[in-house]
Amino acid sequence: MMNTPICDFVKKYAEDDKLRLHMPGHKGKSFLGLESLDITEIDGADVLYNARGIIKQSEDNAASLFKTEKTVYSCEGSSLAIRAMLNLALLHAKAIGKRPIIAAGRNAHKTFLTAAALLDLDVEWIYPKKQESVVCCKMTPDDLEAFLQDLNELPTAVYITSPDYLGNMADIKSLAKVCEKYDVLLLVDNAHGAYLSFLDKSQHPIALGAHACCDSAHKTLPVLTGGAYLHISPNAPKVFSEQAENAMALFASTSPSYLILQSLDLANKYLAQGYNRRLNSFVLKLDLLKEALAEAGYTLIGNEPLKLTISAKPYGYTGDELAKLLLKEGIVCEFADPDYLVLMLTPENDDADLSRLKSALSAIPKKEEFEERPLFKTRPVKKLRPREAMLSPSKKEKVYNCVGKVLASANVSCPPAIPIVVCGEVIDENAITLLNYYGIEECDVVI
User: What is the pLDDT of residues 100-120, one digit of tens each?
Assistant: First the structure.
C-alpha cells in the first residue's frame, strides 16, 4: 500500500500540540481552519529541493507511479518546473560545449519567455503551417524535421506544449524519434496532462520519449492549487537528475507550502488506489457526452480525453457568449475567447455533473453559423533578444499607438498566458489586429 510520509508527519505534529516558536505566525491557531497542518521546514519535516527524508520518500512514491527516473515536487505550479527544465537544458548545453538554443512551439506559455530571458537563452520559434488560434501550434514529425534541417545550428532542445489549452495533443512519440535522430532533447509542457500516465495506454510524455516534462497536478488531479511535478526521464542526460533540485531551487521560494506538499503526498495514495479504473471509466462517460453534443450540432475540437472544447462560431456564438449562457446556469468554464469555449472535467465530476452540463448546452438554441477571425500571418521581426527587451526601460502604450515599437514584456493574462507578440519583437499591423481581437488594450514597449 502506498504510504503518505509527509501527511503522517504533519498530522502527528499537529496532534502533539507542540508550542510553535517557529514560523508561520499563526502558530497553528485556527483562522481559516487549516493552520494546524501548515508548518515550515522544522526538524524532521525535511527540506524541499534538498530532500533526504519524508519529502524524498514521497517524491520517490510519485516517481514510481509516473515511472520516471526522478520526480521533484513544486509548490509553485508548472511555472517553476518550466524554469527548471530550461536551466537543466542550459547546463546540458554547457556540458557538451554547445550554445544554449531552444526551439519552441510558438504557443509557449509566458513563463517560458521569462525563463529564457533570465537564463539568456536563444529561442528559435517553430510556427505551425496553419494557425487558427494563438493557443495552438500543431506540429507533425515532418514539420519538426523540416524545421531542424533548415537551421544553421541545431538547438539543445525542442520545447513543445502538449496538451495545449484547447486540448490538442501532439504525437510526442514520433516527435521524440525526430529529436533522437538529430540528437536534441525533447522537453514538454504537460501542465494539463498529469492524468495521462494513468490511461489504459499511457499517453504521458515520459512514457512516449520526452526527456523531461512538467505536470500541474492541481489542474487535473485532486491536488491543491500550486501543486506540480518536474519529471525526469531515465533517458535524460545525467545532469538532469543530478541537478534537478538545484534547478528548482534557483527560482523557487525558500518557504514551500506544506499544505500543498501534503496534498501532493496524499495524491500518491489516491493514484495508487484505483485511480486508473476510475479515470478510464469516466473517460468513456465523457466520450458519450461529446458524441451527444456533436449530434446536437456542436463542433468539438481537440483529442485530449478530459477536455471538452467547443468551436463556438459554427454554432452561431462566440466562446465568450456561450460561457455567459452557461454561467447563468451556474456552470463556470475554464476558458473562453471569441472562438472557443474550454471545459475541463475530471473523475471528481459525477454523473449528475455530466447530466447538468449536457442539459445546459442542449438548451442553447443553435443559430446561423458565422466566421469572423483575423488572419494569423504575423511573424514579427526580432529587434532585441528577450532578455534585452525585458530588462530595458519601458512604458505602457495604447495598442493603437504601438505599430513599429518593440514589445518589452508579455501582455497577456492567465489563462491562456500565451503572447501574441514576443518581447523583443516589433509590433506590426497584423499584431495590432490580433491584440484588438483578443481584447488586449495596452502594451509595454521599449523606450
Answer: 999 999 999 999 999 999 999
Contact (Cβ atoms closer than 8 angstroms) between residue 369 and residue 316: yes
The answer to whether the beta carbons of residues 231 and 212 sit under 8 Å apart is: yes
Tens-digit pLDDT profile for residues 339-370: 999 999 999 999 999 999 999 999 999 999 98
Q: What is the dihedral of CA 273, 276, 278, 281, to 10 degrees?
A: -160
Beta bridge pairs of residue 71:
231
- Residue count of the chain: 447
Cβ–Cβ under 8 Å, residues 228 and 192: no
Question: Cell for 93?
Answer: 548545453
Q: Which helix (H) or strand (E) holds 214?
A: strand 212-215
Cα-based distances in Å from 373 to 260, 261, 313: 41, 43, 10
- DSSP conformation letters of 65-122: HHT-SEEEEESSHHHHHHHHHHHHHHHHHHHTT---EEEEETT--HHHHHHHHHHT-E
C-alpha distances (whole Å) from 394 to each of 301, 397, 445 are: 39, 10, 5
- 3-state SS, residue 123: strand
Cβ atoms within 10 Å of 250's Cβ, excluding its own: 15
Query: Residue 301, SS3?
Result: strand
Closest to 136 in 3D by CA, of 265, 271, 304, 4 = 304
Q: Are 167 and 109 in contact (CB under 8 A)?
A: no
pTM score of the predicted model:
0.95
Give which of 86, 99, 67 is closest to 158, Cα–Cα. 86
On whether the CB atoms of residues 318 and 312 are closer than 8 A, the answer is yes
Cell of 97: 560545449
Task: Using the CB atoms, write b or e for 115-140: b if 16+ within 10 Å.
Answer: bbbbbebbbbbbbbeebebbbbbbbe
Interatomic CA distance for residues 264 and 271, integer angstroms: 10
Residue at 171: amino acid letter: D
**Domains present along the chain, CATH in parentheses:** 5-272 (3.40.640.10), 277-362 (3.90.1150.150), 386-446 (3.90.105.10)
Q: Are 156 and 123 a contacting pair, CB within 8 Å? A: no
